[in-house]
TrEMBL record:
This is Calcium:proton antiporter. PANTHER family: SODIUM-POTASSIUM/PROTON ANTIPORTER CHAA, SODIUM-POTASSIUM_PROTON ANTIPORTER CHAA. Residues 211-236 are annotated as: Disordered. Keywords: Membrane, Transmembrane, Transmembrane helix. It is a multi-pass membrane protein. The chain crosses the membrane at residues 12-32, 38-58, 70-94, 106-127, 139-159, 171-189, 242-260, 280-300, 312-335, 341-363, 370-387. It holds the Pfam family Na_Ca_ex.
Amino acid sequence: MVRVSQSRVPSLLTRWTVWAPILALVPLPFTWGKHIGPAWIVIVAVLLGASVLAAVHHAEVVAHRVGEPFGSLVLAVAVTVIEVALIVTLMVSGGSDASTLARDTVFSAVMITCNGIVGISLLVGAIRHDTVTFNAEGTGAALACVLTLATVCLVLPTFTSSVSGPEFSGSQLTFAAIASLALYGLFVVTQTVRHRDFFLPVAREDYRPLAVGPTGGAGPVDDPSTQEYDGEHADPPSNREALLSLGMLLVSLVAVVGLAKVESKPIEDGVGALGLPHSFVGVIIALLVLAPETLAAVNAAQRDRLQISLNLGYGSAMASIGLTIPVIALASIWLPTPLHLGLGSTQIVLLAITAAVGILTIVPGRATRLQGGIHLILLVAFVFLAANP
């Protein structure tokens, strides 16, 4: 995970990852709900980027402390909090275009995770280690959950007839929300309790087998020389360090949500000025909230721990649908705009291709840079068609 030394907690207070999120909260009283000029836009953007990087660091510290596969859930839940907050605030302040914001953001998150995070992790890992290996059973189960959630919540509204348009009726939306929570909960239990070994890094043939440590993390059986592969170059952080990072993770998330809300109006104005469709705002939101997951996944892939990268990618996609849709469904009671969740024909085709390619990638349990390149091409196609529908 991260190289966290057993230093004293007071020394941690001097690190930029601690004071940057706190500093990022300072501009909020002066910019919240106000029209800001170019100077403030730049300042907020810089602080927003610093907060995202700080969130990555603190989430990895916490993940290192709790071990795998619990650690992979930390960022997945964190980015969902950011995503839901952004969608709700924009839908409350938006007009008729806001009715599809939840759909655009969630679908963008699915495409970015299943093609972007997975693709770049495969490519980075394969470039550095030639061939990457992972657990096909656990990864296949994660992809199956993602595709089921995407179909129930994003595809079916296009074909239902109870309500005109790509929209669920009240009872249908309730069913989709309950089903999403149930499936996500079932997956979490499977990942963290019943079949944890399905989601742990796989030992390569030229290394000794990995063992499941007391916190669920994978480690060498008894040979210190294998630590380079395992990636655990430092002891887990102490409880005090982990608690400090947990607190700073929450502060970082608050800063990210607040600053992203401040930047949302300039983002919408910029999208309009570039002549892009309003739906492209959802792509930008998804790219923003998934930045921590992407950085963490790439770091894991560089250490030849691709299973962690896949856990992060598919886990984030699952959380984006399985947690975001139920919350948005509940919030729709008070939202001033209808909730259009149904995908268009182009989006359904992209989802179908992503499903087929994802299955073919996962089944062998190993991959090369070719598979990573295919997924990244699909991501580029999605972004291009989102900008030029």
